[in-house]
Amino acid sequence: SREEVAYFGAGPAPLPTPVLEEGARAFVNFEDSGLSLAEISHRSPTANKILANTKTALVSLLDIPDNYEILFMHGGGSGEFSAVVYNMVAVWVEKRRRLAENELGSDEEKILERVRSDIRESLRLDYIVTGSWSLKASQEAATLLEPLKNGGKAKNFVNIVTDAREWNEGKFGKIPHEDMWKMTSPEGSAFAYYCDNETVDGVEFPSFPKCLVSKDDEDDRLVVADMSSNFLSRRVDVSKYAVIYGGAQKNIGITDVTLVIVRKDILATIPSPSFLHAVGVWSPPAILNWSVIAKNNSLYNTMPIFSIWIAGQVMRSLLSTHGDAKVSGQEAVANAKAKIIYRILDENPSVYQIVPHKDVRSRMNICFRAGDAATEKGFLEGAESRMLQGLKGHRSVGGIRISNYNAVSMANLQKLAEYLKDFAQRKR
Ligand code: PMP
Asked: Which CATH number applies to 54-307?
């Protein structure tokens, strides 16, 4: 039964049982309407209310300022790898057009020529690579931008600010000191990108990177963060970001919906396709175009209203559990749960080897090795026999991964803690 299983999967991930039970009812007969939430029109008043309520809950949980828009999108975290590039490059190009216009007046041809040359000479996208997901995002950027190189005349557009593997024997597990980062100047950089929590490698930024803080109004470095796997697990100063995004299927709800929090001035700067085409840049595909999605209140096309409703229920349950503490309340719980596990691992270094360095250990995805392959297999089998599931590390890195998302209860975590202690005792 559900009560017997303790699940620690990395995503899809556990959800609060009351939300699922309520969801089961809503899936058949939503609020006694006689219809399933999966059947109603995404343009119905009910769907609109669900969208609005979910936004309100998110604004409240994260104290999102008025100058930000919340979008519900398709395509998951991976879809946003592409969306970030399409939209942010378009924004950078539009800013260059405005600068050229100020300088050159109304001569269209000269302006176009200047922007084309700016793209060739100075467009840069800064990626801070600290794990598999930021690496993938940077690779997607390089692929999308390749045609803009115009037959190799331009340099690489993607600037790898740092590749953490270079500082950690070829493996992820560390965030290199910021003094070693090679940032592009804010004017050249279309954005600086990082992944707040690397799900595969168990690396989490302890705080907002210092060198991404804008020094003054002139220096508006646009920061984009992937928070797919630590969304709603700690306080975030949204005002520091141009864009925050995350797929829902870990801390927010079920898969199918991606949340994007984007500054409104970014939306207003995404230019028309005709200008972008004139300078040889693609226009963002409508389905990934943040401005199109915002103008249509996230209903440009058919959205999974059931998934958005689930996300809203999860948010409302966080609000009712933590009251005024909001997401800080959840942060305290997440930290306490992670501490219990790391303490046991630290106490048994001959049995458990934690993958990331101590100062960047993820609270959400606790990655460690438990000896050789046979011992790890034994660990996983032993866990299964106690109904502790979803502990196998990502196929690309192996090892063990405990995902400690918001809906993992303290009771289930304690069961796992007991198993970790028992296993260590047997192996010591
Ligand atoms: N970013 C992070 C941090 C992730 O953990 C994942 C998926 N596990 C992704 C992006 C990709 O998300 P999706 O599967 O929704 O495309």
From this structure: 3.40.640.10
- CA 195 to ligand 1: nearest atom: 3
Cα separation, 176 vs 154, in Å, equals: 29
Class of domain 6-16+326-427: alpha beta
Q: Is there an atom of ligand 1 within 6 Å of 134 CB?
A: no
Domain boundaries, the chain: 6-16+326-427, 54-307
pLDDT number for residue 218: 67
For residue 40, give the amino acid letter.
I
* Cross-strand bridge partners of residue 128: 162
Buried b (16+ CB within 10 A) or exposed e, 34-46: ebebeebebeeeb
Distance between Cα 160 and ligand 1 center (Å): 20
Determine which residue's CA is closest to atom 15 belonging to ligand 1.
76
Cα-to-centroid distance, 107 and ligand 1 (Å): 45
Cβ proximity of 249 and 100 under 8 Å: no
ipTM of the complex: 0.99
CB 246 near ligand 1, within 6 Å: no
Which of 199, 203, 258, 365 maximizes ligand 1 atoms within 8 Å of its Cβ, making it the mutation to test the pocket? 199
pLDDT at 240: 96
Q: What is the DSSP string of 127-169?
A: EEE-SHHHHHHHHHHHHHHGGGGTTTTS--SEEEEEEGGGGTT
CA distance 66 to 235: 17
Over residues 164-184, the mean pLDDT reads 97
Query: DSSP assignment of 350-365, as one string?
Result: TT-EESS-GGGB-SSE
- Name residue 211's amino acid: C
Q: What is the pLDDT of residues 75-124, one digit of tens each?
A: 999 999 999 999 999 999 999 999 999 999 999 999 999 999 999 999 99
For ligand 1, say whether the CB of 229 is within 6 Å of any of its atoms: yes
DSSP H or E segment with residue 259: strand 258-263
**Most informative mutation of 139, 229, 254 for ligand 1 (most atoms within 8 A of CB):** 229
